[in-house]
Amino acid sequence: MPDYSWPPMEKRKMIGKATKRLDGPMKSTGRAKYATDLNQKDLLHAALLTSPHAHARVVSVDTSAAEKIPGVTAVRVLSGPGTEIQWQGTEIAAVAATTEEVAIDATTKIKVQYEILPHLVKEEDLAKAGPRAKAAGEQTKGDPDKAFQEAEATIDGYYGIPVITHCCLEPHGQSIEWKGDHVNFWPSTQNVSGIGGDLSQNLKVPATNIHVTMQYVGGGFGSKFGADRWGVECAQLSKASGGRPVKLFLDRATELMIGGNRPSAYAKVKVAGMKDGTITGWQSESWATGGFGGGGSPPLPYVFDVPNQRKNHTAVSINAGGQRAWRAPNHQQACYLTCTAIEDFAAQIKMDPLEVFDKNAGLTQRADVYRAQLAKGAELIDWKKKWHQRGDSGSGNIKRGLGLAVHTWGGGGHNSQCRTNIHPDGTVELELCSQDLGTGTRTIITQVAAETLGLPMGAITLKIGDSSLPPSGPSGGSTTVGGVSSSTRKSTVNALEKLFEAVAPSLGSPADQLEAVDGRIQVKGNSAKSLTWKAACQKLGVNKISEMGANDQRNPGGLNSSGVGGVQMADVSVDIETGIVRMNKMVAVQDMGLVINPKTAESQIHGACIMGICAALMEERIMDEQTGRMLNAEMEFNKLAGIGDIGEIVAHLDITPEHDKRGVIGLGEPPAISTITAIANAVANAIGVRVTNVPLTPNRVLEALEKRSA
Amino acid sequence: MSKVSSKKNPDAPIKPKNGFSRRGFIRGVGISSGALGSGLLQSTATAAPAGTAGPGAVPVTLKINGKPLNLTIEPRVTLVDALRNYLDHTGAKKVCDRATCGACTVIMDGRVVYSCTVLAIDAQGKDIQTIEGLAANGKLHPVSAAFVNHDAQQCGYCTPGFVMAAKGFLDKHRNPTLEDVETGLGGNLCRCGTYVGVRKAVLEAAKEMRGGRNA
Fold first, then answer.
1. CATH architecture of structural domain A261-411+562-709
2. Do B4 and A641 touch (CB under 8 A)?
3. Nearest CA distance, B28 vs chain A (angstrom)
4. Both ends of chain B: CA-CA distance in Å?
5. What is the CATH number of domain A35-118+172-249?
6. Which residue of A has its CA nearest to B135?
7. Which residues are CB-contacts of A513 (< 8 A; sequence separation ≥ 6)?
8. CA of B13: which chain A residue's CA is closest?
9. Would you tell me which residues 59-118 of chain A have a C-beta closer than 8 angstroms to some C-beta of chain B?
10. pLDDT in tens, A544-588
11. What is the pTM of this model?
């Protein structure tokens, strides 16, 4: 079997080199065509009519007026009479028309009668959830009662982290052309290889007849895997309109209501421990909602496997849009509920939390990694100099504080197949049906191929985003980089072996004594006996080389692995007169195995921290108890941080020979986990009191301060 | 609703943003449009043509990147929809559709505007620059090049709007400080979190443009 292992660190020329993303110029000139940008010939536009009610029964739907509007080509009812609606934004009907304006007009002419039913849209007050709350049953470990009896110190805290929405800038949707027995599908998706199969099942069209293409996607973050109901209906509208292509994307309000969200999590937590910082007991009563289907079950206590535990979790079903995977599902919540409580425990015993986290590192699966990362983070944020006892931040209205949190993630490589074609004219083509979410997938695949083949990146043509190419897994769980880098490595090594076989006679050397270096095929270590890449490929005659390589998730052969740790620290200033929290600095220390492109890796960490700042300081879905409606289904009050809100961000890529030996590990998710908690802990440190719920809006900060003075 | 200040000095009092933030301007409109210092959109509001058009489709001519383009649209069609749905200029993106996020940013008569909040018929007679016109000769504009150099883009959906906002900002502020950049580009939002790269990119582009290259 050929040797697929990664070249040694010191010998790499492309892998590990900070490289500009290949599709950067396409994006920064506006030429990158996203699914929303494709205007096919004879394109029709579709619009959805959605339910304004959180809980209702559809009594009647009258589409006759809509059907008569000139330009309308098809009207479909999705939720007919008798349908029980369980959340606002549920699709009631869909219209296709010659223009977007006509399609939207037509939806307003559809008359729907509802029988309005009682709703539950808020879950923080568990007592009001009644039968909508389902307890999962108690879990215990060790002897929690004894641990609390023998504890030298305990804390009793309450913490809450709300539902937030994915808010992908490119909304969910697609164009579809269903002509005869063939379907052309142009979705906005994280799953080009798999989404056609999902549509196929719903349309009863053979999967072989569905062709999916997508070159660019405007954000997914875990919310864009399936064909979805709007995909299926878009296809039906196309069929009903004589096979013309139809474009259907969610408008912003609908996107925020039904396009995916991160479940909430609330908990009453007790921590027991010793005055030296040792944590001995954990007790939590937690609850969460992921919408009507319930959901949200954070793994508690997070990272630290406290020896004595008692846990009760309750899932609450509410009348609001359903959860979807959200960049590190359940981990942000678990991190928040755990690392806030540990910080409060540290404050209770008046110990530096850096020492408490370090002291308890033995309870984690990677004590040495976390200890080293805590030290590195502390150095980068100047912890020893800047940290003070909780609330001991001097006079004046601006209070400064530091906080930290830790996280973990898997990130093994998904199944992926790659084909490498080497043509007799020397051109090289790589084919795999993956997708580049903006993580730099195109760039890292090309770096790996260039490394293996000894060619410049510009000599390699990469084809992704087309379902006729060899399949790769969906981009979720931080599994893409491990999967595609490994399949690319194997495929290019296999193709190169074939090339060696073809040129061996000309170089008078056995094939296994050849190497590809700097655009030449040569006898190992002897550049005098060599051929240029082009001359070598000419030896192929008229036949191209076409070789596959596959990554098997269960057997990655050392090319990729999973399991990382990270530490983040925040430095904030809080104005105790206005309640405004401002970021001074974030430090993110992250281990990630072998790093193919430090430039895009660093961007991932920066972006993850900024997402965390949004969620820590401003983002939340606000539901109205009276009407059952989402009050901020737009982007003015469903807030994201702007460029002036983020402070300094320092990403430390933990690149070491030890981590490198583990192979490639995904990075998309881990650094998105602990930012929120590090900031919340920094605010507590600054103002001397815990603000129990994020986001840390000025009103919450002022309320917490008021309680302290009361 | 309050917001987070962008002030850099950690010990300085935290005050709301003012100055030339478009985002601040738009926010303020609902409260008191008379008391605002920005004025970036004011002239377009007062310069709307008199008379009525519609409700049916009417012929409209838009001067885009120096070329007059004819289309027939209903008067209610916004500039971003006209660009995207009728002229296949899809660089500008429709994201919030409510003048919050800046993904639809174009430059109109030298002013940076949200094209989701301008009616196409009101844009007649104006000089409209879209991102499609920025690299017309095939060479990257210094702003686009700086975005690539500093990886100021991930999914890239907000990028065309950011590039146009940066270009419009730098046309008027040739030697900005970091704080100026943060305020001047406060009207554009990114979900992937590319602001670290954007800050560096805009400062580098300012330097390049001062050097006179392709400015």
1. 2-Layer Sandwich (3.30)
2. yes
3. 12
4. 39
5. 3.90.1170.50
6. A29
7. A523, A524
8. A398
9. 99-101
10. 999 999 999 999 999 999 999 999 999 999 999 999 999 999 999
11. 0.94
